[in-house]
Predict the 3D structure of the following.
Amino acid sequence: GNSVTQMEGPVTLSEEAFLTINCTYTATGYPSLFWYVQYPGEGLQLLLKATKADDKGSNKGFEATYRKETTSFHLEKGSVQVSDSAVYFCALRPYFNAGGTSYGKLTFGQGTILTVHP
Amino acid sequence: NAGVTQTPKFQVLKTGQSMTLQCAQDMNHNSMYWYRQDPGMGLRLIYYSASEGTTDKGEVPNGYNVSRLNKREFSLRLESAAPSQTSVYFCAGRDRDSYEQYFGPGTRLTVT
């Protein structure tokens, strides 16, 4: 079956530090890959996505590249801010077509808590 | 547009009590989902509805029932709550064109 594994957390950084959160996946075919962010007390928001190998998703200074050879989708940011403190989830969606039965179901990693100190 | 809304935000139940979590969306989603979020386990799919009038089990359906009342509303019912159902519950809707899922703010449920 499909699965997503994220690096163990929590991660604590100082402001302006470099961030990497590792994510690897197991899936058949060519899934789409996502990073979601959950700020304290809120629901999940889509941060970025990539739908095919070698695609790079980017948003708000965050980036992740879909690496099929290593089945990875690591999240990076060059200089984190206090406002980036949140929980980050890596997720995959199996290849979906109109006749398929996956109905766009997402499989999530366990989440990584990021705390950024001033 | 309100997006995806959930009620209540917080709830405390005693073991054996029942309750219904409500979810509504005004984004014209066909598909809707219920997840639970537990520490260290990410989000796990409880039930989903591919379209109005249809529902299917997800990864962890035991102890829950759902109703897709109409296109906008998808409710989750706990008939006899258990402490193992203490969790944060999220509803989501899926965009018809992009297939992206949009999440509600969540319901924090504690069963004592």
